[in-house]
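Let's sit down with a protein and look at its sequence and fold side by side. Go ahead whenever you are ready, and we will take it from there.
>
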Amino acid sequence: MQNENFNRAISNKNIILTKEEYIGKEIIDIFNWFIHSFKSENTQQSYTRDLEEFFLFTFKTLKIKITSLKQITERLVILWKESLNNFSISSVARKLSSLSSFLTYARKRGLLEYNILELIKKPKIDKKGKTNTLNQEEVLKLLEFSKKQFQISKCKKSRTYNVWRLRYTVMYTLFTVGLRAEELCELKINSLEKVGANWRLHMVTKGNVTHSPIIHPNTALVLMDYKNEFRADAEGDDYFFIRSQMSKNLTKLSRSSVFDMVKISVKESRVFKDVSPHSFRATLATLLHNQGVPIVQIQGLLNHKLISTTSIYLKKSSELAESATQKIGFLE
């Protein structure tokens, strides 16, 4: 594989690894194979940055030019890990994960006996409570990444376009409406309705209770775009989301499929948190609360019977304000 791809990929801060100046040819070739095993450009760039940082550390700080995988020892990795003390725990975990993935790739192809990272203690990311939430920056990163994946596809009939189009619409809806995965799967074409100046999403929640919250105009737009593109011929009682956008199989989206697409999307976008579809519900509650939406209105949006249930997501209460979803400022 040509070195030019690697050199171009790791150009950063006016440092370009050329002519095996910092890394041996064997490592460059393996690096290229590893990077190009990922289809996502964002994923390639993210792994490239982390691995480049490791190789530059060994060359500049330790005066060691890595020419063979056997040179990547426990001592080198520990020294690199210790040099990252100015980074957040999640950033350190991501960087170590990148190197670990690279070594695992090499091990599975018989190029390495074992992954040295398996012997090194990884930093523990704080997991308070049963459900992890995302901050605003992580929400935007995940949504923007997912949107970019189908936008860069040149063919709307391609599998990549259809898969990421569905993932983006599903996650956008989960984030901005706060519904559960099973509630999303049960949505019908006629669940989305414009009533006067507002859009409502009719759903059946826990206990077979009907719930019709007002949703953000941008959410309605995302849903309508998906409906017009993939479900234009569907009847009102047909399921809104189907498992495949490229076949005549109209099987509804399953709860497990929603979990899978969330896990894949979070991993691909390099958001290093253990999240589930329910995390989006908790995230919406937390972000709205931080923007000053009163807890009683968040309770109504999430359709909680008890305000104490809503309080599990939150740290403090707030004063009364207008309709909860209209306060989702990060959608503007």
